[in-house]
Structures are given as structure tokens and as C-alpha cells.
Amino acid sequence: MDSTATDRTRPTYARARVPFVCDAGAGATGTAASTRRREFLKRAAGSLLLPAFVSPLLAACGGGGLDGDSDGETVVVRLASADNFRDVGGADGYPTADGRRVKRGVFYRSSALTLSDADKATLGTLGIAGVYDLRTPGEIARAADALPAGTAYATINIDGTSDYLMPAPASAVEAVAIMQTRNRGFVTSESERAAYGALLTQLASSSSGAQLFHGTAGKDRTGWAAALLLSIANVPLDVIVADYLLTNTYSQASIAARVDAIRQQGGDDTAASAAPLFNAQASHLQAGFDQVEGSYGTMTSYLTQGLGLAQSTVDALRARLVV
Known about the structure:
Elements: E1 12-16, H1 28-45, H2 56-60, E2 74-78, E3 86-87, E4 107-110, H3 117-124, E5 128-133, H4 137-142, E6 152-155, H5 172-188, H6 190-205, E7 210-214, H7 221-232, H8 237-245, H9 247-250, H10 252-266, H11 268-278, H12 282-296, H13 299-306, H14 311-321
Parallel strand pairs: 4-7, 5-6, 5-7
Antiparallel strand pairs: 1-2, 3-4
Helix pairs in contact: 5-6, 5-11, 5-12, 6-14, 7-8, 10-11, 12-13
């Protein structure tokens, strides 16, 4: 799903107020779901979520102040030609359930790196030594990465197919079901598990420089990879979901452009049916976590049994991720 930004004029070092998008479906049902997610996390990570624990993301959803500057603002690097580029560690380093923080500047995630010259120069200042492209060969052929000189490049085809073809759902409900199935496939598909296992193994073994991984929109394949890393770091699941939803903020303009293009071609009903394919919804990611619980019981079992990671690999990733 290509959500490349249309403005490719210059990079911006934005001292921006970064909104943390919350699940609009909260309430009695949301509370029950949150309780279940927290219980799953406790089993997965083997650590206790203290009742007083409040993260910056959850505080931004309605309870307390943001970490960072006194005015609640943080400094983030934005790439105009790769709108969903961001640090896996968040704006200030996500807090973990055991009182530590995710280290920034280690792993980055992004939409496709079809970069302007200015954005390529900006990327070159961040010490990124390696890029992992998670797209299919067809997607890469249509929009190849443009990287700073000297950056190592590798492809890991998560889908395991020659190309990704955009579905044409008959309704928004069907589109949501498609996205939930896609996220469950990251757990149930043997080839996709092998691909994620290869990605995490290579990220753990990278000895120098930061690493970046990306898909096309930087939402689904990329979002699952980021969710796994944050899970390994012992970031609370509520925060992981909120981080996933930030795609709706970072890629707001390009999402709207894609939906509008469909509207121009097929009308309002067709656009409304397709919109969930481009938006991040909590239920999409939650479907993947529910599948982990259903198939493996805990995230640890999914990582070691499902993805085939050695415990030493998980430990190496955690050591790189937290401070």
C-alpha cells in the first residue's frame, strides 16, 4: 500500500507537538479489552504492570502530562518524501513495564524510501548503517529505495509473493476483516514467520550503526516488526497499539490522498469501503496479538517457537533496545 507523501521539497526538523492517537472505541468494551491485553502482556513478558504506571502515550490519551519538554513538545525528524519515517523508540524513548526506557537512534521504521535529495541527506546524518526492505519484488520495481551512499541494503520479502495486489473490498467491514486476517497471517503463515525470524536475527546481529526497516506504507509489515521489537523491550501492549496508530497522524495527508483517488475513480461508497485498508486501526494489530495468544500462549513462545529465534537473539535485541 503506497502512501508516499506528495511533498518532496525538503526535510523538516519539526519541533512538533506529536499527538498520540487513542482508540476511539474505548468504553466498557474497551476497558475489558485493555484488561485482557494487559493480562496477556504479563504472561508474555513475565513482569508486573504496576497500577500506578502511566506512560507518555497513555497520559496523552487522557491522564497526566507528557514526558519531555515542559510544554509537552518533542523534537522529531520528519522526512517529506517518506512520511511514516520515525524512531522505533518513539519521541522520548517509550517507558517499559519494568521501569526502563527504549533507546532511541537504534532502530528506525518507515514507509518506502523513495527519497528526495534533501531527505536522503537528512537520512545520512542519522548513522543508519543498514536498511531492510520488507516489500515484494513488484513493489520494489515500482518504487525503488533511494539511499545515502554507503548504506547497506537487504530485502526480506515478508509476503513471500512476487507482488502485492491491493484488495477491493465490497464494504468497510470487509476491509477491516482483510486487515485483521493480514495481521493474523504474520503469526499463522510459516513463510511470514520465517521472514520475521530472519529480520529479527539480522537486526540482533548488526554490530555497527542504526538499522531501518520499511514496507510501502510503513503500517502493516513494518508495524508488526516494530510491535515485536517493542514487545521484546517489554513496552506495555497499550503503548504498542498507540504507537501503531501514529500512522494515522504521520501519514494523514497521504492516506487522505489515496482514499480521495479511489473516490475520484469509483465514487464515495467505493472510497468508504476501501478506507480501512489505508488507516491504522487498533483491531488490525490486536488481531495479530490475539493470534499469538491463541497459537502460542505468550509472546516469548511465538518468538522462540514460531519465529525460531534463539533466546540469545531475543536477549541481544533487548540489550540493544533498552537503557
